[in-house]
Write a structure and sequence with these properties.
Shape: globular
Structural class: alpha+beta
Strand order of the largest sheet: 3-4-6-10-11-12
Number of helices: 7
Radius of gyration: 23 Å
Number of strands: 17
């Protein structure tokens, strides 16, 4: 005799089952779309990340990752992802960006924790713990600003910016960039500093992307900055638990040639007070400045190199006079004066918001207070002195 559920239970379970199925359909996305050319008008045309069910969700095969020390962008938080076509993988390199296959799609979503009912009020905080829902973002707690797509096509990498609408449902193509007025509110006010700061968040246009991503100023080809061994050699809290990001990519088939982890370089977290001061400052300069200030970069004519491999001598700015006079020097004689941060050009430019003075030139409208404090502390701890030539 066949035994089934009583009809009363079927009536009760039926609507619940239907709701669950509908929710499942709502969360679903078509497979990631690789666009071999053109500029799709909507972010959702890529099917990499989309808003469903109150979350910014990642599609199947879209892998989140993070950097040991991230580049500063007006205190914005960032959700980084990478996707590769089935059967393709990146090749490990100990120092340069990994050799990522044609078809790779990298996304970086810039967002802020909400600070209240006004969508333009956002929180200045280093706390990411409340942002996430699984591997995606909890839309009730964050305000999305922009998502940048880097796609590897047959003719090279293309950078495509998208700006999120006010309803936070879709991001649309912004080839000429955008200017978005926002207000930063400190989660932990500091005595003597304003807890509220109005600023204009600037989304770069496509041509400006080359200013950072063209690390070789001869060929001016765009390349990703973050996917380097020293930047992503760290643990990430995935949906199924913590794992080293590099080993996780190998497990997924996204990375080949990885040596033992004890042979892989690793930048420290600039904000880790337990790490050596020198390592923290060098990691900060590497990610924020090194993509331009290197032997082949846009700033190679300055003679100032700030990537991780630069020896601690004049190449790093120690007792090095600037190559050109002007407001950018602040009337100081050397890029770095050991033991005297207030006499050094480097922190002077990091602490400025004035065009023609500020460094980096793009990517920020605010001053990174904590970053400036780090570089000043690093310079203050350096021994030696410089002799000014008048």
């Amino acid at each position: 005799m066949r035994v089934g559920l009583p009809m009363s239970r079927v009536k009760r379970v039926g609507p619940l089952l239907i709701l669950l199925l509908l929710a499942s359909c709502q969360r679903g996305m078509p497979p990631v779309a690789f666009h071999a050319d053109g500029r799709p008008p909507k972010l959702s045309d890529w099917h990499v990340v989309e808003v469903h069910g109150g979350k910014l969700q990642l599609n199947d095969g879209v892998v989140p990752y993070d950097l040991n020390t991230p580049l500063f962008t007006d205190y914005a938080h960032k959700l980084r992802t990478i996707w590769m076509p089935k059967g393709k993988s990146a090749k490990y390199h100990p120092t340069d960006t990994f050799d990522l296959p044609v078809g790779t799609v990298i996304s970086k979503t810039f967002y802020y924790p909400r600070a209240g009912d006004k969508t333009t009020d956002v929180t200045r905080t280093d706390d990411y713990s409340h942002d996430f829902a699984g591997q995606g973002l909890d839309m009730a707690k964050v305000h999305l600003v922009e998502t940048r797509i880097l796609v590897h096509r047959k003719d090279g990498w293309a950078a495509i910016p998208y700006v999120w609408n006010e309803a936070q449902t879709e991001a649309t193509l912004a080839r000429t960039g955008a200017v978005l007025p926002l207000t930063l509110l400190d989660d932990k006010p500091v005595a003597g500093q304003s807890a509220r700061e109005d600023f204009n968040y600037v989304v770069p246009d496509e041509s400006q992307c080359k200013s950072c991503h063209a690390q070789d100023w001869v060929d001016r080809q765009i390349h990703p900055i973050g996917p380097k061994a020293r930047h992503i050699n760290k643990d990430y809290h995935y949906a199924d638990g913590n794992a080293n990001q590099l080993e996780h990519l190998v497990k997924l088939g996204y990375l080949s040639g990885l040596p033992a982890l004890d042979q892989v370089p690793r930048d420290v977290n600039w904000a880790d007070s337990h790490a050596p001061l020198d390592a923290r400052a060098r990691a900060y300069l590497d990610i924020n400045c090194g993509h331009c200030h290197n032997g082949n970069g846009a700033a190679n004519t300055t003679g100032l190199t700030l990537d991780y491999a630069t020896p601690e001598d004049r190449h790093l700015g120690i007792c090095k006079p600037p190559t050109a006079a002007g407001r950018g020097t602040g009337d100081h004689f050397f890029d770095i004066v050991p033991g005297q941060p207030d006499e050094s050009i480097l922190p002077y430019r990091l602490a400025s918001k004035e065009p023609g003075v500020m460094m980096p030139e793009l990517g920020r409208s605010t001053v990174h207070r904590e970053g400036v404090a780090l570089i000043k502390a690093w310079i203050a701890a350096q021994p030696g002195s410089c002799v000014a030539i008048h």
